[in-house]
Amino acid sequence: MSKIVETIQWKSADELYWRPQEISVHLTHLVHFSRLKICFKSLSAADLNFLKNIYTKSSKFLEFDAYFKKFISSEKLETLWGPPKIQMDGNCWFFKCSNRKNVLRIKCHFGELNFINFFVFDKSDIPIGTVLLS
């Protein structure tokens, strides 16, 4: 995998779908994709915070779906981002994007197989009463 992520094809690709096998690559090799659907062995709160910081500044990012078996963290997401907005299909946080027209929603569901979704959408479509975080 270390050789693949250095190729021009990898660096030029816009979308990545890597399921059901787990991908073994550092997150820095994934942030140029606009859409991703992948599996990991594990993710941490620091990993998710890293992605949040990248995606709120990205002009081309659209969506990232990740499934992972283990959530490794010494910090809880609530400690990093504050209390989530509770929804039927998971806990959500909403962040301002640097372009001011968009919002990044991060939705987490923790269970036997953990799931996280990062999704950018128009600010006018945020649910009523939602607090936008920086």
Automatic annotation (TrEMBL):
Native source organism of the sequence: Caenorhabditis briggsae
Source species, domain of life: Eukaryota
Any one Pfam family match given in the protein's UniProt record, by short name: FTH
Protein's UniProt name: DUF38 domain-containing protein
Residue ranges of every copy of the DUF38 domain listed in the record: 2-76
